[in-house]
Every structure is written in C-alpha cells, then in structure tokens.
Amino acid sequence: MSRPRSIAIVLASSLLLGGSVGAAAQGRTLTLMTHDSFYLPDGVIESFEAAHDVDVKLLPAGDAGTMVNQAILTVDRPLADVLYGVDNTFLSRALAADIFEPYQSPELAAVPVDLRSDPEGRVTPIDVADVCLNLDRSAFDVGGLPVPARLEDLADPALAGQLVVENPATSSPGLAFLLATIAYFGEDPESGWTAFWSDLRANEVTVTSGWEEAYYGQFSGGTGEGSLPIVVSYASSPAAEVLFGPDPEAHESPTLAIDVGCFRQIEFAGILRGTDEPELAGALIDYLLSPEVQAELPLAMYVYPARQDVPLPAVFEQHALVPSAPLSLDPAVIDAGREGWIREWTDIVLR
Amino acid sequence: MDRHRPALTRRWALLLALAPLAFLGLFFLWPVANILALGLAPGGHWEPGTVVDTWRQPFVLDIVLFTLALAGLSTLLTVLLGMPAAWVFARFDFPAKRVLRALTVVPFVLPTVVVGAAFLALLGPRSPINAVGELLFGANVPQVRLDGSVGAILLAHVFYNIAVIIRMVGGMWAHVDPRTEEAARMLGASPARAFREVTWPLLRPAVISAASIVFLFTVTSFGVVLLLGSPRDTTLEVEIYRQTAILLDLPTAAALTILQMSGVLVLLLASARAQERLSIQQRLRSASETVRRPRPGRERAIVAVVLAATLAFMVTPLLILVERSLAGPAGYGVDAYGALLGEDPRMRLTSAPWHAVVDSLTFAAATTLIAGTLGVLAAAVVGYRRGWLVRGLDALIMLPLGTSAVIVGFGFLVSLDTPPLDLRTSVLLIPIAHALIALPFVMRAVVPVIRSIDDHLREAAAVLGASPARTWREVDGPILARGALVGAGFAFAVSLGEFGATLFIARPDSITIPVAIFRLLGQPGASNFAAAMSLSVVLMVLTATAVLLIERLRGSGPQPF
C-alpha cells in the first residue's frame, strides 16, 4: 500500500519544485494574452525575445469574448502586459472598461485608415478576417445549383434547405453573419434583417451552435462531412482546404468563398493598463505590426495582415477571397445592439 | 444494542473535516462568492432586486423546465440501463471481466468534443444506418438523423454516465449477501419479488448516491447539449456560460447561478437525508465470495445478453473513434499516431502532442493525491456521523459538480489574485480544479461502504478484547481502503478527462490531452482531425489502463472477511 503513496508524494513534490524553479529564473518577462486561435510559427516570438532580452509568455484565454471579459474582470491586477485579438464586435466593451493604455505605433502609417477603429489610439489593428459564405463547388458546378449573387438569393426556393449558419449567441462567425445582414438590410421591420431571417427560416436554414459543427458536421464541401453545400465560414477557408488537402499545390480548392454578405472582423492589440513594462509592451505591438510578422499572419492564422505593403502567400492569392466591399458596423453600434439583436434573432429563427 | 452509536467522536469528526472544509472554502466558496458579489452589487451597493427581476423573466422558466426535464430523464434512463449491467458485473464471473469493467469507465472521461464527434458520426447524415439505407434503397431514401435532437443528448448522457451506475451500485451489490435473496426464493418468492423486497432495500442508498451524481452531471451538462442538441435547446448551464463568458452580464449570471446552486443544494440535502434514512446495516460479504459463474441455460443467456447489449452501446462510439484515427487520405494506416510524436506546425500546438500525455498523467497523479486524501477524510466524517451538519458537509462537497465551471473559473480570476495566492496563471490551479470535481467521487465511493459496516463486527472485536484503535484498523480500515481505491480510480479518470475547467486555466506550456484534442479539432485539415482522433484513442487506452492498475491494488490489500 505504501508504494503508490510514495510515488504520488514524489510526483507532487516534483510538481511544486518545478514551480519554484520556474519562479527562480529571474529576468524581464512580458506576458501576451491572446485568444485560443493565436499562433505564430517557431522563431517569430523567439527573435523578439532575443532582440529585447526578454522572456515572452503566452496566455491563451479562451475565445475573443472570453478573453476580453477576463481582461475586464482583472483590470486592477492585469494578467498580462499586452492583449492581442480583441475584434470590432467586442472592442467597444473593452474600451468602455478602460483596460488599455493609449499607444501610437510608428508602424501604423502602413495600415489603412479605415482599420483604425479607435480615434484615441488605445488599440492597434493587427489583422483582418472576413466572414463570408463558402460553397461546395461540386454541388454548384456539377449539381447545377444557382450560385447566390446577393444575400436575398439565399431565401430563393431554388436554394431551399442548402444553407447552414452558426448561432450568433454562441459563435463568433455566426454573430458576424448576423451583423452582415443587419448592415446590409437595415432595421426596418418590414424590409430589414428580421424579414430576411424570417424568409431564411421559411427556406429551411440549418443552425448549429459553433463553426466546427457547421463546417465539419453539416457542410458538404472539402473536409466537411455533412450534406449542405453553403456554409458561413471565412474568406480564407478555401485556401486552408488546399493547404491541408491531399495536394497543397492544387489548382482549385474543393470549396469557394463568394463575395456575398461578407463581414469584416478586425483584430486589435493593446497595452493593458497597469503593466510594469510599457516600453517593451509597445515594442511588442510594433513587432506584431512589422512587415516580417505581418507576412507570417496569413499562413499562421488564416487572416489578412492589417498592413497593405506585405505580399500575400501564393495559396492565398490563388484560393482565398478578398471581398470588394465587406460589410461592417461601428463597434459602439454593435455593442449597444448585440444582445437585443440576438434575442430577436432567436425568436425569429429558433422559436 | 445502540445502532446509532457513532464510531467517530465529535471532536475527531471536526478535526477530520477541517482540511476538506479549508480546501473547499478557499478554492470554491470564496471564488464563487466573489463573482456572485460582483453580479449582485454592481458598483459597490447591493441590488438583490435585480435577481428577482431576472427570475421573473419568462425565458428563465423555459430554461429551468427544460434543464430539469433533460436531467431527470437522462438520470432515469441511465439508472434503468445501468442496473442490469451493475448486477452482471457484481454477481457473475466471466472472461475478461476486469478489462471490461475498466472499459466502462472510458466513456466517462472522454472529452465532450470527442464524444460529440463520435455521436455525430453515428447519428448524423453519414451514419452507418444511412449508408445501409442508401445501399438498399438508393440515394433518395429519407435519412435517419438524430443529431440536433433531444434524443441524441439523452443517448450521449447515458453513454457518459452509465459507468457511475455500474461501478457505484455494482460496487455495493457485490458486497450484498446473495444468500438472503436465495432464502427468499426458497421460500417461494418470485425473482422479481425477492429482488424488490430483499436486495433493492439494501441497494437503495447506493442507487440514490449514484443517481444524484448522474443528475448533477446532466443538470450541468454543457458540451453535449451544445454539440448534439438543437440550438433551441438552452440549458441553465449554457445560459450561465453565455451570460458570463460572452456577454459579461454578471447580474443575470449571478441570478441564474444562485438558482442553479440552490436547486442543486436542495436536491443534495434531500438525497443525503434519504441515504441516511434508508441505509441498512448488513453483513457485507467479500466480493469474491458473492461472485460466481452464471449457471448454464437461462441465466447464462441473460448474462450474455445484458453484457452484449451494454458493451455494444458503449463500444460502438469508441470504435468509430478508432476507425477515424486510422482512416487517412490514402487508406487505413497509423500515420496519425506517428504524428503525435513529432512537432507539426500545422497542429498549432507549442510542443509535440505526446507532451500533453505526460502533463495529463502528472496532473492526474496530483489530483488523485489531493482528492484521495481529502475525500477519505470527508467520507469518514459523513459516513460515521449523522445530523444536519454532516449533511451540510456532504452537500458542500457535492456542490462543485452542480456549479458552472465558468463561474468557478471567473471566480478564481477575481479571488486568487494576491500573492502568495496569485494562482491565476499557476499550473497548480489545474490539479486544484480537478480535485474539486474528483472529491465527490472519492467521497461517494467510500461513504456507502462505511455506512453499511456491521456494528456487530465491531462489537465482536471489542468483546474479544481488541482496543478501539485496533478494532478500527481491523474492521473498518480494509473496507475503507477498498472504497478509497475505487474513488481514487475515479479521481484519476476525472482528471484525465476534465475539459471545461481545464480549457479555462490551461497554459500553453502544460496542456492536458482533452485540451490538445480540442485545439486540434479547432484547426482545419484532415491531418489535424486524424491526430485529434488518435489522441482520443490514446486517452481511451490510458484511462482503461489506469483504472485497471488501480483496481489491481485491491487484490494486494488485506482481506477483510
């Protein structure tokens, strides 16, 4: 009986020891709080560490909303120095809670003005992700379905029971698509977004709780295992299908992102108020916005760089979509309207 | 003879209860109280009126009714389907029994993302049923689909929780003297009547104990509801998560949490009271004494059917996972397993997936240590003493199972933020959170056994001149140790599979297997999907092995009877 107990004691004490050894290694550290989808290739963070003689710790904190809410709750004792990944749907809540220190990055000159959503410069735009409709090519090329040319076409009986969307209450692309319809149709009770969604419901739209269930579970294109040929996903998804497909050099992706009802999500970084290392934090934001890191973003996170002067990878040029006029809403309008819109949407589509 | 003379003095009971109370106070009550206070007193002054206003909203009643109905139905189904298997495992000996029993725990620890994927594969548009339908009747045959329905949630709940019934009820059943029931049969009672009047009353406390755990698990079920249910089906847990993590509407979240926790508390107190009232002291037999090979003929057939049906139900989703892990773009192979050993930038993990295996095992060992120690202490108090204070302790230990993980997690953030207790980004938080969830299992495994220790044995020992200490060591100790081992197995397994709280506190330098699986599933690409499936199979094998090893230890202890 004593053997398992002593093994457990050894394990527990080595755990404690490991903790104290880690704390003993002194030196400057900078903590970067991110959402769970954050990723940069090996060496990118390391070269920042070497250049500034600092240890960068990553702190993934859930999806974008959960991360922002954690930062708001810990505003008096921040968990990190820099936060990356707050997007325009959560921006205004973060700004209202006053979690950021203003910072003007010298690299900002290379970023288009319309991405700089905060005039006071408390957050810095880093990347852009467009939520767009994706099609299963085979259903349209071979199956003969009519390719939707505008959002209204989704309510066309010819496309009845072909679309899967995510629940905006639980999914960030789902919310983006709802916002796109609000930006596109407006709020008129007769002809606005509510009327459109009533039509979509009549046209047998399928709803899932998250992107994974929609894309892998219901969508029929690419890696999807379902039977529905239209899904709300990202403008970059067809490029990802090729990258991860059997032939990374393929000429044609099995899926196609179309320039219909695209909503632009802009992701920002900011310095968390209360940091001990404001200068290093600023340097990290400059680095995220530098041409070398910006060029890595597309393949690392399937997003577009905020800078316009960096080349896109070939697979993006070839398969991903750059929407001509993505829809958007002001962050303050989104924050004020979100909960009411979601409740209305739930009543129209699900009840 | 005084049936109610406690074997543990009040002073000792208080002393023993100290450690579990301190642990729960610091890592559960304090964090939860803090986050609730933020919701109830926004801006510093109390506004309890908003709680009542929230409760009055019509959507709250809808959610509460749906949550209760779903959990009640799930529990009922789990008990009904679990009892025959519990009986077979408790009473009969058959080939590969240990392995099969360990296997039943596997579903219990699989992360919801994995089970969701398996059930979608089984019940969704490309299920084997539909494949056969298409083969027979052509492509236009209507599809059978259970995904997105309450039926799918119920099936998944039974799949998850049936192990709790098989092991907790079966664990008690194995010690119930079969001769009493046999005597009733000799006297002419039908098998049904003999069970109802002889065995059932003896099992009832264990059934209530296990059923209340299943109820708690299903009433707070989160991933299964989101993954398999229709988006219409909102449970209290899903709504609390939404209000907290997505909307940061802490007043609404607090109102819903208070509703959830007080409901759970009422249930727990009622269940503890029922268990106490119904527990019957009996002469426990050693499990090896009560078990036998099924008699050829009808009995053997019944045992075979029960076993086959239970295993088919539990193993089919697991086999789907194995199949998925082996299916590559170029046919079947073990490529996905090789991929676990190396670093692949496309996986978006900071290190090779096998590191997650090492980390998971370390966390599970630490959890077993913490929850094992505290759980046995608590079980001793709850098992030996009676009264409302004891029922309170019992309910308190169970309460974390009925509390939303996101509430506890956000509570950690706003509570454990001052050195030396700034544990918010510490890796110690993982075994601590796991221990909160594992504690109830250890305690529930030990308490029913303690309660049914026959006082006659103690009295006999005392009459023969044994000191109280020796009596305890010789009579109670060995029985307790066995219960503790069952509990330890659960603690280890709970830690291996825990997902909701871990996702919240895992840091990139140490992630557990379920979190790694979740991350892999969130990345595009068939290779990442296959890697997630192969990691799930590794988790299955690890769990089964761990549980098997812990059960082996049972054999090496002293034989109590």
Give a count of the beta strands of chain B, DSSP E runs of length 2 or more: 2
User: On the 0-100 scale, what is the average pLDDT of chain A?
Assistant: 89
Name the overall outline of chain B. Answer: globular
SSE run of chain A: HEHEHEHEEHEHHEHEHEHHEHH
Please give the share of residues in helix of chain A.
25-40%
User: Which value, in Å, is the CA radius of gyration of chain B?
Assistant: 24 Å
Greatest interface and its participating residue counts = A-B, 57 and 64 residues
Order of helices and strands of chain B: HHHHHHHHHHHHHHHEEHHHHHHHHHH
Mean pLDDT of chain B: 85
Side by side, the strands of the main sheet of chain B go 1-2
* Helix content range of chain B: over 70%
Structural class of chain B: mainly alpha
- Note the total helix count of chain A: 13
Care to count the β-strands of chain A?
A: 10
Q: Oligomeric form of this entry? A: heterodimer
Low-confidence stretches of chain A: 1-25
Structural class of the secondary elements of chain A?
A: alpha/beta
User: What's the story with the biggest beta sheet of chain B?
Assistant: 2 strands, antiparallel
Distance between the termini of chain B: 23 Å
Low-confidence stretches of chain B: 555-561
